[in-house]
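Human:
If only I could read backbone structure tokens as easily as an amino acid sequence. I am handing you a single protein, as its sequence and its fold in token form. I hope you can help me see how the letters and the tokens relate. Thank you; the sequence and its tokens follow:
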Amino acid sequence: MAKLDSRQRVWNLFLLAGATLVAASGQTYNTLVSFAGANGAYPLYGSLIMDAAGNLYGTTSQGGAYNAGTVFEVTPNGALTTLYSFCVQAVCADGSNPWGWLVGGADGNFYGTTASGGTNGDGTVFKLTPGGALTTLHNFDGTDGANPYALILASDGNFYGTAPAGGAYTYGTVYKMTPNGAFTTLYSFCALTGCPDGEVPSGLVEGTDGNFYGTTQLGGVNQQGTVFRIAPGGSLTTLYNFCASPGCPDGMAPSAALIQATDGNFYGTTSFDPSATACQPACGTVFKITPAGALTTLHTFALSEGAAPSALIQGSDGNFYGTVQEGGALNDPEGAIYEITPAGVLTILYGFPCSLTACTYGANPNAALVQGANGVLFGTTLGGGAGGDGVVFSLALGPPGTLSINASGVVNAADYVPQVAPGSIASAFGNFLLASPLGDTGLPLSTNLGGLSLAWSSICAPEGSVCPEVIGAGFAPLFYASGSQVNLQIPWEMGVTVAGQLEWQNLMAPAYNGQSGNTQPIAVAPFAPAIFTTGSSGTGPGAILDASYRLVDSTNPASGGSYILIYCTGLGAVTNQPATGSPALGDPLSWTTTVPTVTIGGNTAPVSFYGLAPGYVGLYQVNAQVPAGMPANASTPVLLSIGGVASNTVTMAVQ
């Protein structure tokens, strides 16, 4: 018996929606750009900056024309322009591998750093015009620092930054540079025996007092990092030593820059100990520290919330927003976006899913966010995306929603028509309050994903006769759930209204962690045929394979006389009916009790099998023979009918 080549292929073709997802409490996530090597790869620590028109600017650490990193621009609608590809000069004299963010200069140019390349191979500071003309302002030589990635523009008009390596003691430096490139090393870390002043500095922030504040990832009295203050003249004061008590409840290894909030205090994050197993003793913290050095731990991450948090921003609402590089929710997410109040109440806004989507929405965010004037958050991920090399994304913050299914929101999953049949695959649209997409890869399917379930009931609507009020009730099996969409199987037990017989009212309501949502009627008919499409739109190329289980398309057109496998749903009752939520067997097969009709290019096609696809839940398969003498056409229409009900029309390539 013919079947699809893998369960994952079925999932990808039939059950996932487009690239826009609704996350927790109505947040809308969108992928603006996917990096794929030639246009850049792996944006690392560099948060984006935004101009007055809403255009975004940033760097990628690799990729570009010479695979040494890029500077890019992204418009609000996602159009990407590569402004510069590094290593265009011999031996990368112009620099390579920009790790950090850009700074907008008072002169309208961009300023930034590369972690390597330059005349000495230790990195550079550069200026780049909006038109893409690059000038190298400084070449690091190791003695003044190496591998820089953090730069800020201070109120005195000069640039200040850190290099995590090099310097007089090889453990990093703080430096100052004028817009013309005059360079001064202000401090070399590990100047004291045992490095109590810290090692490996992260980025700087200028305080309202005119001093600069930052962190070191290592060193300090406890060798787990520090918070420091440094004067413009280079005098350094250690304000706090992490891991001040056993177990390090205050955190360790702060690897991100601080921010100064509107209350005058500084806020930052610590990472987990890289040598620890399963994020022990912690997956990182969010902390507050006063300018005098009094530290308060606001939140300690559990693995389910995320690990390795990056730098924070303070939003227009006064709350803080950030990302975690790993973890963040159920179902193996690769990082998350979170909100945390000044009091330390944390909410996961979006978790990056990988086990469901092959990381096509991005994975492992590693840089701070930026907020637009409209309140939308923008950021990057280190990996994932359609090209696998990271993405630029947006997250619109919506108001808290109400658990609900939309009116006429339960539809056929193949063509989105609000009529379904028992046993078929359906989609429910509404507000389901989930922070990130979840899916069930086990069998039989679960009726609960992340605390969300869909309750159903079938109620008799008598016409002058006595009948039971309820013939069935329960919870629908779930394939996939996100904040806005749930894909489910319509239970075989749901009532079907047949002309001349009793009518049935079928109802469905969401429930989430003890909270009940609204109840919506759904239209259940004996037949609701619909053919799946490769674009998950209900129109266009159909989910049709040849006898070798290859997709029929313009590169693999079907021939007259050959057999094709049409994948669909809603064909009604079957023999050997499996239990609700369970896959169909291959022996014995489950045939539909009514024979369908298939037309290809207006010609009736003989059918050799019509029933449930073995090994799958709610998925029907019709094997048909392409009529001989069909003219070549890349978009030959295909239609299926059963019980007097016609499906959507899809297309396939015929040669």
Observations:
- Residues 304 and 460 are 44 Å apart (CA to CA).
- Helices lie at 7-15.
